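I had to read the description of the data format several times before I understood it. In essence, backbone conformation is discretised, so a fold becomes a row of integers matching the chain in length. I therefore recommend that a typical entry be quoted early in the introduction. For illustration, here is how one protein appears when written out as sequence plus structure tokens.

***
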Amino acid sequence: MVSIVVPTRGGAGRLPKLFDALARQTDDRWEVVVVIDGDTDDSAAVCAAAASADPRVRAEVFPENRGRSEALNAGFRASVGDIIVRCDDDLVPGVDYVATHFRAHEDASARGQQVGLVGLYQNVYPDTAYAEAYGRPHDVKFRKDAYSSPADRHWKYWAGNVSVSRTTYELVGEYDTAFRAYGYEDVDMGYRLAQAGVAVRLVPELETPHFVAATTTEIRVKRAFYSGSARADFDAKHSLSAGASPTGLWGKAVVRTGRSSSLDVLMRRGRRVDVLLGRVPEFAGEKLVAFLVEAAAVAGYRNTRTLDTNF
């Protein structure tokens, strides 16, 4: 059986699309375990309705927000399948999603291999100037870069559309609950898999539509800041360096801006850029967004104080 573990918070409007997609699977050997990380919008009722229609749907509700890692760990512990899929609540898997996970893990097992499978996101954006200038072009480049990256670096792409066998999960252990705010609990898991000798593979057939939450420059900047902060924690945990300092004019300007700007300042600039997008050429808009996103990551990396865990 494939166990699909879904951490969610405020997902009442997103979960029905996921449940509908799972109901259409060509392989019916699945269960879904939803862990509601503090119920803010009656997601429990949505899950209860789905469970009444299909007993393969189960849900656990935290009485308060505990963070994505805690939710993932609870879902993995409650699941029963030999293959465990970690699935975001805003994905809409294709009809062969379960079958593809099954087939890839069975093939690896037949060869005596342990693997971690990664399906990249196909981010779905509303039709906005941000999507045209930055969101969609950035996603195309991201996937191109991912597939052209060395196989021993694929762990960096471990995220919200991945799977392992239960044996592999038990070898590596649970998600690290020290990653409490936003980002890097997944990258940390991917890194630990690679360090344990598990082959992390990008599987094009597992690319899945993802109704992305970062739909404006302001939101993307905030996420980049939080991700940067989490990366600093990740680097410290694994004794990794931040990498070489940039030498070009762009890189130096990004670092200077990131080091001198707070999150509030960067978000205000993001709002101003959102106003400009659509009024300036798309190439200029893309550069404006990219600059702020990169600067926010630098600013976050320097800021490892306790951040908003409800983000």
User: Anything to note?
Assistant: The first strand starts at residue 2 and ends at 8. The mean pLDDT is 95. Residues 2-211 form a domain with the Spore Coat Polysaccharide Biosynthesis Protein SpsA; Chain A fold (CATH 3.90.550.10).
